[in-house]
Amino acid sequence: MTQRGTLGVAVIGTGRMGADHVRRIDEVISGARVAAVVDLDAERAKRLADGIEGCTAYSDAAAAMAADDVDAVLIASPGPAHEADLLTAFAHDLPVLCEKPLTPDAASALRVLQAEQKLGHRRVQVGFMRRYDAEYMKLKALLDGGSLGRPLMLHNRHRNASSPPGFTSANLINDSVVHEMDVTRWLLDQEITAVTVLRPRPSSNAPEGLADPQFVIFETDGGALVDVEMNVNTGFGYQVKAEAVCERGTARIGEEQSLVTETAGQWGGTIVQDFTERFADAYDREVQAWVDATRRGEVTGPSVWDGYAAAAVCEAGVRALTEGVRVEVEMIERPALYR
Ligand SMILES: NC(=O)C1=CN([C@@H]2O[C@H](COP(=O)(O)OP(=O)(O)OC[C@H]3O[C@@H](n4cnc5c(N)ncnc54)[C@H](O)[C@@H]3O)[C@@H](O)[C@H]2O)C=CC1
Ligand SMILES: O=C1[C@@H](O)[C@H](O)[C@@H](O)[C@H](O)[C@H]1O
Fold first, then answer.
1. Which listed residue, of 157, 164, 243, 321, carries a Cα 20 to 30 Å from 203's Cα?
2. Backbone dihedral angles phi then psi of residue 207, each to the nearest 5 degrees
3. Given pLDDT bands bounded at 50, 70 and 90, which one contains residue 252?
4. Residue 254 — pLDDT band, cuts 50, 70, 90?
């Protein structure tokens, strides 16, 4: 670590999320600085690095991870590139914050899990940022406190204003519902055992051929039922809502009633347009928690096990979507490192 214990971070992938994390580390987070930025698009990396003192631009992640001033890595490249970068980070024994998904499929996630086990200690926090969102944290504390009794059902609504170019029907599961897979496992402290995906008629807002929306159902090993309305072309904005139905009551988050105006014979509020706005505080808290834990020599938050479990549920989800049947999740036993 350099500059009196300041963590030198290499940010790999400087697209939408990576550039936002670079800004966050540079301007918001304490105890860390952006030592390197990496992008296959060398011009893009250079433009970002030029605006930050002491930051070097790379187009090769391995070269950045070998640099003396790099103490930790934030991976924000597309999912298929994560495995190679995680394995290189392990070779240098560097702490990692890896954006979701850990990797795009269960087999590659398992390889990462096995490599971390070989290392003998946890090195990775996975970027499931909802665990750092103030509302989700309150819901988790309430459920853990037990005052509502055992959770029986969890209803989720996950809506995006529009889907990015090239977004596929499987991406609704892998890219979007993956967050509900993680919050379900985390909130209920249960594993997801089976997935069913039902499809209403496609929205006319959606690009031709995209199965959007989807209605996804999880069964859990604790006997809970969970549903997710996944809807990525609402046209009107971004919404993430959840309602836990428990034996002695219910709890809801994502109601967006922080500011309600009444004027000219109408009342109402505004709807945010995307995740960078809705989860801005959660991303800040997530990255700060990673920096703080890393500086203490600890690894906290969603683990490689959580990334692997989500990948296994995604795989079942994509099969359930394409084959139109209920699919059981196949997972290995949880290794001792993650208990
Ligand atoms: N936690 C969250 O809410 C969100 C997480 N994500 C995740 O963040 C990651 C990045 O997503 P976006 O920023 O939306 O993608 P993006 O497409 O905007 O940016 C990706 C960047 O990575 C670069 N890149 C591609 N392959 C690379 C490689 N091998 N090495 C270095 N750079 C490489 C590209 O040139 C591009 O600049 C993904 O894993 C995605 O799932 C994305 C959106 C929200
Ligand atoms: O991770 C994310 C995106 O990749 C995904 O496409 C969105 O649906 C999610 O809400 C966002 O958090």
1. 243
2. -60, 150
3. very high
4. very high
Which ligand 1 atom is the nearest neighbour of the CA of 283?
1
**What's the complex ipTM?**
0.99
Domain spans in the chain, listed from the N-terminal domain onward: 7-130+281-302, 133-278+310-338
| Nearest in space to 128 (alpha carbons), one of 294, 9, 287, 315 | 287
Q: What's the CA-to-centroid distance between 281 and ligand 2, angstroms? A: 16
d(CA 19, CA 248): 44
119 has a pLDDT exceeding 80: yes
Which two three-digit tokens encode residue 159?
């809506």
Please identify, in words, the CATH class of the domain defined by 133-278+310-338: alpha beta
Find tokens 């809801």 and name the residue.
252
- Assigned CATH topology for domain 7-130+281-302: Rossmann fold (3.40.50)
**Structure confidence at residue 36 (pLDDT):** 98
Q: Which of 277, 287, 278, 275 is nearest to 28 (CA)?
A: 287
**Residue 137 CA to ligand 1 centre (angstroms):** 26
The residue to mutate among 39, 74, 167, 275, having the most atoms of ligand 1 within 8 angstroms of its beta carbon, is 39
User: pTM value?
Assistant: 0.97
How many CB atoms are located within 10 Å of the residue 293 CB? 16
How far, in Å, are 53, 105, 128, 221, 333 from residue 336 at the CA level? 42, 22, 22, 19, 9
Kindly identify the ligand whose nearest atom is closest to the C-alpha of 240.
2
Q: How many CA atoms lie within 13 A of 51 on its CB side?
A: 10
